[in-house]
Write a structure and sequence with these properties.
With about 500 residues, this protein is mainly α. It has 23 helices and five strands. The two termini are about 45 Å apart.
Length: about 500
């Protein structure tokens, strides 16, 4: 997989995985009108839409709401069972690894304006078959949000024991479904309010809790540090990694951003220092206040919160911290799925009737489908950890395909790449993409061996089925791809 120059050969990877079963797209980015992608499929260069309504503050609020969610309040206990008091180091490792996983996405966000999410990236940069794979994979990715809804149920149940976890999860996701039906403007305003409350509350918890740490979380040779050895430590980090990199999804909001190539990467990067303080601090406090055995394996951070916070303050923290963290993440799920599926429907992968919008401009059929997928794991009683592992397995091929596509930026859009906000060389981009693919592969292997054999087999079967459907429709023809990446340099030259 290394060519004669010593550079990682991504084309060889894609040949090996057999994702691309069509002719490669024309690498000339300035062509106008329609171009043949095969004898039956076309690509149509569409004009860049007008700037959207989302400003930098809106994008940051949405991004922080995406990433600060149920993972930080439901996975620390299970991770601590794997590695002991070193759980805070595991979270630090997860944040760093997560950053390198998604950094290629951030680079793309600083280079081009994106609509349609990972589907658009792959379709415009790699080809039609690969785009089909991503389009269909997005049909199943909402299952991760089932874990967030269940986490909401766990916390609200603590405040209202008379209501079951499952009932709270179902009602919570349904309420957010209704809110999202009110349109993007309402979504942005709600996200900003919720994220502000969340940040203030979690910072207070960390600052207050750091003064009450009693356990030897900094004694690296202690018997409760690295309890599972290096293997346990890495398993903990890999379990936590999904809760530490969700900010890259803000890239999908490029179409609705006022200044996409400036504000989208800023919003993503601004999340990283927030995560370092809140997540690592939260792990220190949660793992350092009580004895190891009282926290390790606990499904929530409630034992630590109850130990350090007075009764009234504890209830305020519950609403403004964990519950708000979960709600902000759940609130973003509908638009995370909306953009890729909408673009895929426009291009011919999915029925166009799903594009129907209500009077607020919300695609209610896509939102309804998303709601149903989120509800299925809840009503079938899957655990949060199981859902997380299944998600990591199912999305592996999609993630690798997207990162490969991003590596093609210098070839596909040379003018835009030459003016990218990070001023990276081709070699730097290839290096970041290589590191990202390696991390995704490690997570995939971990996920396969962390779930029941039946779940692993089912996940692989689903992925193979999606690949075959994409290849079939590509050969059948009728796919009419609308460009959904826009080169800022082209726009300036045309003006």
């Amino acid at each position: 997989m290394i060519d004669k120059s010593g550079v990682f050969n991504y084309d060889l990877i894609m040949d090996t995985l057999s994702f691309i079963n069509n002719k490669k797209i024309n690498d000339k980015s300035k062509n106008k009108g329609e171009r043949k992608m095969s004898n039956k499929n076309l690509i149509v260069n569409t004009p860049e839409p007008k700037p959207g309504i989302l400003e930098r503050g809106d994008l940051f609020a949405i991004a922080i709401g995406m990433v600060i969610g149920s993972g930080m309040v439901t996975l620390i206990g299970p991770a601590m069972a794997m590695t002991g008091y070193s759980v805070w180091l595991a979270y630090l490792t997860a944040i760093v690894m997560g950053f390198f996983m998604v950094f290629p996405y951030i680079i793309l966000g600083g280079t081009m304006r994106v609509a349609g999410g990972p589907y658009s990236i792959v379709t415009n940069l790699s080809g039609v078959s690969a785009g089909g794979l991503v389009a269909y994979t997005k049909l199943v990715t909402p299952i991760l949000n089932s874990s967030f809804a269940l986490a909401l149920g766990l916390y609200v149940n603590n405040l209202l024991p008379g209501i079951t976890v499952k009932a709270i999860a179902v009602v919570g996701i349904c309420i957010l479904f209704v809110l999202n039906l009110l349109g993007m403007d309402i979504f942005a305003k709600v996200s900003k309010i919720l994220s502000t409350i969340l940040l203030i509350t979690m910072v207070l918890y960390v600052v207050f809790g750091l003064t009450q740490i009693k356990q030897p979380i900094f004694q690296f040779s202690g018997d409760k540090m690295f309890t599972g050895g290096f293997k346990g430590f890495m398993l903990a980090a890999l379990l936590l990694i999904n809760s530490a990199n969700g900010y890259y999804n803000i890239l999908w909001y490029g179409k609705d951003a006022k200044k996409a190539t400036k504000d989208v990467p800023f919003a993503s990067m601004a999340c990283v220092p927030c995560l370092l303080f809140i997540y690592v601090g939260l792990a220190m406090v949660t793992g350092g206040v009580l004895p190891h055995d009282e926290v390790a394996g606990a499904p929530t951070i409630l034992p630590a919160a109850q130990a350090i916070l007075p009764g009234a303050v504890y209830k305020i923290f519950m609403i403004g911290g964990p519950i708000m963290a979960i709600i902000t993440t759940l609130n973003s799920v509908f638009n995370d799925v909306r953009y890729p599926l909408a673009q895929a429907a426009k291009d011919g992968w999915l029925p166009k009737f799903i594009l129907k919008e209500n009077r607020f401009g919300a695609p209610y059929l896509i939102y309804t489908y998303t709601l149903i997928v989120v509800l299925i794991p809840i009503v079938t009683d899957m655990s949060i950890v199981t859902i997380t592992n299944i998600f990591q397995v199912i999305t592996f091929f999609m993630n690798v395909t997207v990162v490969y596509a991003i590596s093609r930026l210098p070839k596909r859009y040379p003018e835009a790449w030459a003016k990218n906000k990070f001023h990276f060389s081709n070699g730097a981009l290839y290096t970041f993409c290589t590191v990202s693919i390696i991390i995704y592969t490690v997570i995939f292997v971990k996920g396969i061996f962390s779930i029941k054999v039946s779940y692993a087999v089912a996940a692989v079967i689903v992925m193979l089925a999606l690949i075959l459907i994409g290849i079939y429709l590509t050969k059948k023809g009728g796919i009419r791809i609308e460009t959904s990446l826009w080169d800022p340099s082209v726009k300036k030259e045309e003006k």
